């Protein structure tokens, strides 16, 4: 924070301002934050792979998320793409099944009756199905729909 406060006080056309990204202290800080994030993602992905034999993930387009101003900070800070890569190679190594399934309409499709609602904003965390009256949490409903899509895409085995 100290480095960032120092950078904010400098005027944009001064020599000090342009030399800021090269400061050793700031580079060390960014490396430290990146290492903390990577350590956390490694630990969480390892926990998931040890706990689950089937991992189904939505195909979140990270590059598209980074173009959106509101989602870019969250997407880049959380390391979604890095987490998916870690899950993928750790699942293969552990003998678990890892699949990416299309997330299209997964949040607004009712997991009970498969009714598709009109567009709902990102701020809507809970919603009611107009057809069957079921109450849904946005994320839980999406995960149920993604798992259902995976099961539907698998060839039937007797």
Helix content: 55-70%
Computed Rg: 21 Å
Strand content: 5-15%
Task: Find the count of extended strands (DSSP E, 2+ residues).
Answer: 4
Mean pLDDT: 80
Biggest sheet details = 2 strands, parallel
Shape: flat
Q: Which ranges are low-confidence, i.e. pLDDT below 50, for 5 or more consecutive residues? A: none
Q: Number of DSSP helices?
A: 7
- What oligomerization state is this entry in? single chain
GO molecular function, one term: DNA binding
Protein name: Transposase
Domain Cas12f1-like TNB: 81-146
Keywords: DNA recombination, DNA-binding, Transposition
Short key terms for the protein model shown above:
158 residues; mainly alpha; Cas12f1-like_TNB; 56% helix; two-stranded antiparallel ribbon; two-stranded parallel ribbon; Transposase; 4 strands; DNA-binding
Describe this protein's structure.
- With 158 residues, this protein is mainly α.
- It has a domain at 104-158.
- The chain is 56% helix and 10% strand.
- The chain is built from 7 helices and 4 strands, in the order αααβαααβββα.
- The strands form 2 sheets. A two-stranded parallel ribbon has the order 1-2. The protein has a two-stranded antiparallel ribbon with strand order 3-4.
- β3 and β4 (135-137) form a beta hairpin.
- α3 packs across α6.
- The model has no long low-confidence stretch (mean pLDDT 80).
């Amino acid at each position: 924070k100290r480095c960032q406060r120092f950078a904010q006080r400098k005027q944009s056309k001064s020599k000090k301002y342009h030399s800021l990204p090269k400061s050793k202290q700031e580079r060390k800080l960014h490396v430290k934050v990146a290492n903390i994030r990577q350590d956390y993602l490694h630990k969480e992905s390892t926990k998931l792979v040890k706990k689950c034999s089937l991992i189904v993930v939505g195909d979140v387009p990270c590059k598209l998320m980074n173009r959106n101003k509101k989602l870019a900070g969250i997407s880049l800070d959380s390391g979604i793409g890095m987490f998916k890569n870690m899950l993928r190679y750790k699942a293969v190594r552990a003998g678990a099944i890892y699949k990416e399934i299309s997330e299209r309409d997964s949040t607004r499709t009712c997991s009970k009756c498969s009714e598709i609602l009109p567009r709902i904003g990102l701020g809507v965390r809970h919603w009611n199905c107009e057809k069957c009256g079921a109450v849904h949490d946005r994320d839980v409903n999406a995960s149920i729909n993604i798992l259902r899509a995976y099961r539907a895409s698998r060839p039937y085995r007797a």
